[in-house]
Amino acid sequence: MREGDGLKTSYFTPPGLLFYTKKNYVEDIRSGKRFREVMKFSQRMFIVIQKVDLEQINSKNPPKSYVIDERKAGPWNMVLLSNHPGETTSLAIPEKIDESEGGRQE
């Protein structure tokens, strides 16, 4: 994340999120209305949400969003969304390793 980007969760706060992001507080969005409001912010926002909750929100008037990453972590299927398109290279998403070449994929 870049300076000025916001981070929120929705209906779920992943264990360790505050520790790994070094944040004191991350809003946990608890309504479809608030979710839609956040997705309209001019500030670039990132939202961590469980896939099942995102599907529920998207079943009724889905807001414009951009999926940055999806992954299973323990019993949770999580999605990282943004309200703006753009580069994701500044996010701490591990690169895929190409073990056949012994190095990172480009």
| Number of domains as seen in the coordinates | 1
Q: What is the CA-atom radius of gyration, in angstroms?
A: 15 Å
Structural shape: globular
Neighbour order of strands in the largest sheet: 2-1-3-5-4
Order of helices and strands: EHEHEHEEEE
| Number of H- or I-type helical stretches | 3
Number of strands: 7
Derived structural class: alpha/beta
Terminal CA distance reads 21 Å
**Which regions contain 5 or more consecutive residues with pLDDT less than 50?**
89-106
Portion of residues in beta strands equals 25-35%
Report mean pLDDT, rounded to a whole number: 81
> How is the biggest beta sheet arranged?
5 strands, mixed
Helix share bin: 10-25%
Would you write up a description of this structure?
It is a single chain. With 106 residues, this protein is of the alpha/beta class. The chain has one domain (6-104). Helices cover 20% and strands 30% of the residues. It has three helices and seven strands. It has helices at residues 17-21, 32-39, 51-58; strands at residues 6-10, 28-29, 45-50, 66-73, 76-82, 97-98, 103-104. The strands form two sheets. Strands 2-1-3-5-4 form a five-stranded mixed beta sheet. Strands 6-7 form a two-stranded antiparallel sheet. It is globular, with a radius of gyration of 15 Å. The chain starts with 5 loop residues before the first strand and ends with a strand.
